[in-house]
Amino acid sequence: MICINCGQSTQSLYVTYSSDHIKLTDCAKCGEVVDCYVEFDNILLFIDLLLLKREAYKHLVFNSLETELSKFEKNKEDKGSSSIAQRLRSWCSRNDRLNRLWIIILAFEIYLTWVLEEQRSHFLKTSLQDTSWTCMEDVLQKTSLEQYSFFSFYCFMDLMLFRYFTERLLLSHLQWGKEYKYAGDIISYTILLSYGAKIFPVLMLIWPYDSAASTFIIKGVANLYIIEALRMVTNKSYSHIFTLFVAVCILKSICIKALICLLVSGFNIGVSIELMKRDYQAASHKISSLLLSQ
Ligand SMILES: [Zn+2]
């Protein structure tokens, strides 16, 4: 656990007395209360997260997460070694709250991606008279169930690869988190909280928000949230985090493109390579068409 103001490690956030009265711990370094969010209502905490308050993020990803995971670690030690099924059950119960949040965000992401791809395809055909054929066009010709299955897989892999590459680059390349026991979980939770910006459309259900422009704006805002959240939690510079973010997006895009082509080709490697070439040619053609139409 840490002081959310200066980052100094601390043994406890508060002391409980016999009458259920608690006293918040003062930081030995800065003299402030180590974590005032212990007494905050969840609504206020949520608003502070939306406002990108550094202290709110630190309270959740360092102190709140460690409190929850340490309870689980204690139970695990009590139970001792277990089978694969028990380990899987343990993993599910350990990450229960985080997994539920990931599923909610994934559901919104599937819907938004599906809408965006349909609108993009329609726009290219009607406005740019673009007749080039890509893997995504193949997918959009399939049945609704097949399309939903495809976009579910696509968004799931997109999230998992983003999380994996961010974690790997931060931990091994930028050498962050050596002093934290749950460094991987901290990064994962930070991405999860900042990805919450993609839930904004829920607040706009009464307006016709699902246009390509608004979806692009929401994706842009969510990306800014992720960059800012990672910077606040890791204390790295903007240049480091921005470079990491661009690198992760490039790596993720290459992997996702390869996966889509493999899926569409029925896992035929030769056909997949041809599909990838066709997609890149189509992309360069679209860019040149857009530039000429300006
Ligand atoms: Zn402090």
UniProtKB/TrEMBL annotation:
Pfam families recorded: Arv1 (PF04161)
InterPro entries registered for this protein in UniProt: Arv1 (IPR007290)
Domain of life (superkingdom): Eukaryota
Gene Ontology annotations of biological process type: intracellular sterol transport; regulation of plasma membrane sterol distribution; sphingolipid metabolic process; sterol metabolic process
Membrane-spanning segments: 98-116, 148-165, 186-207, 242-267
Keyword NAD part of the UniProt annotation: no
Cellular component GO terms held in the UniProt record: cortical endoplasmic reticulum; endoplasmic reticulum membrane; Golgi membrane
UniProt family annotation: Belongs to the ARV1 family.
Protein's recorded name: Protein ARV
